[in-house]
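Data availability excerpt. The first of two example chains:
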Amino acid sequence: MRRVAAALLARSRPNQRFRAATEVPGIGQDVPFAPLAPAGSRRSRLGRQRARCAPRVTAWPRATPFLGELSRGTTRMLSLVMLGGLCTFCDELLDGSVEHLLHSALGGRKTSKGVVCGVHNNLFGTTIDRVLTDQLAVIGNLLGIRTGRNQPAATIRGLETLDGQRVDVEPGGRLVLPRSNVRDDISDGRRDITISANSIERASALTAQYMRRYPGRDLENATIVESIVPTHRPLRIDGAVGGEDAHRAIAKIAVVFVASAVGTEAVRGASAAAIRKFVLEGGDSADFVRMDYATPFPEVPDLGDFAVHAHRVAVFGDPSARVACGFVELFGAFRYTILISDAWDGPAMALHYAVDPVTALHSEVSRTMPAPITPTQFHALRSSPDDARSYIERLWAAISARQADLRLERVIRDVFAEMFPPERLEQPTPEERMTAAREITARFMAEHCGVPYSRTRPLEASIRAEPENE
């Protein structure tokens, strides 16, 4: 079949060099095909010289200029040879659509072009996959993860604190005001302007912009008082993870991992038809996906050093026991066991994958081993929210430590950008270093611990320091 495919590719691309199978008549060597050139031109002369040296080949019939003009049967055969077969979830040909086996929005890095067609890739991305990633979006945001496409986690907008304040949550768990606010009060001949913004830098820019409305005013003795109001207050967050659609997305993770390891044909057969139907149409998720804190997660020494907030996936195919199953652990706290098939007739396989969504470190190990759970054990699984308590507490401890690191990094970056121009960043004086250290300490204590912070600066200098287009 590969020889026929090579010959068909040669027909579809006549202006390129190719090496096709020797069994095809007239094709056995690299054959140059030069585009036409005007008679007498240098390119024409070179073409004639090369033609004299080129081997003679049997000419093809009329060449097909584009692969898309081949017959449907020929295109289907080429897809089977080049991309590996049919989509896991339908009878369409694989079309090179890139599927993140573990969702990109959760920080998954492993991808494959050989498991899902573009139609189902897009369909799942806007339905069941979105349900699962939306449920876990706050955790990814608080950890400051990078997505599988190396983008920062999404900002969570429109959350509400317990005292009724509307805030947005930027990556890393930084609470900011969704919009700036300016209040202008006049009392006893004194003008008090209060500007609220999501950072001191933004507040300073708004101050400069607002004060330009008063040209000619004597601002020589005016001052600006900048303060940080701690915003890390309790939030109202819907922490529910689960439901039928989320379980369908989790089942899909296990199915596509198996397909990536042994090919789509192994999971397109009758032995895995039930779980594929569940992923596509829904149903009773207890038949396929169960939260599981009783079964030890299958460990391999090669993946033992990942952080507690890492994602882990393990899938097994054991034809001797007639079982295929999967284990999915998200952010080290949400653990699921998936029964892929209780009549597995595919190849023996085991694939372990782990990824740290914060550092993007990921690795996989393929090692054949018996399935660690039987269908009877799966159907007997029972878990309650109390079983997850220790895992959730461990995750929140990791989130708190991560947020402290991110706040300190942000404060250091902001203070250095404010105090030192780029040309002097590498050579600050000892006095400047001490001033910067005090400022970093004060701002970090204000943001992380709620210690009051304020400073007073001349307003005129503040206005001159801001660009005109703010």
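And the second chain:
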Amino acid sequence: MRIVFTEELSIGEAEGDENYMFGNSIAFNTDDEGNFYVADFDSNRILKYDPEGKHLHTIGREGQGPGEFRTLSVPRFDKDNNLYITDSMNQRVSFFDQDGKYIAHFKTLVPLFFSKNGKAYDVADEDGCKFVKRCSFEIQE
């Protein structure tokens, strides 16, 4: 048995529009609607593309303010399909809506993982023992 891949879409250019040019280190994820979110670790920004590869908008930039990043994580989504990014250098997790609008952030010393089931998972160290913890969460204004 073998797997045969047939390219259906390619996003990226060696030269040209900066919205299609990526640095050396990238990661991506897709939301429930098939949009692509590319984390460009070199420029500390997230680029959102529709399912056909059209650039929709750029989220974030280098910095320490709200909606800015110093070190990006892989783009992930919570149960409401909000984008969240863990930024270890700024010691926080930032949330954005589907239009890329900054919603909120909270401080954290360790990376967290939010799953589609509405739970947050964390690694904790208590008295020298490691634990994986699951918590419920909600974003409140």
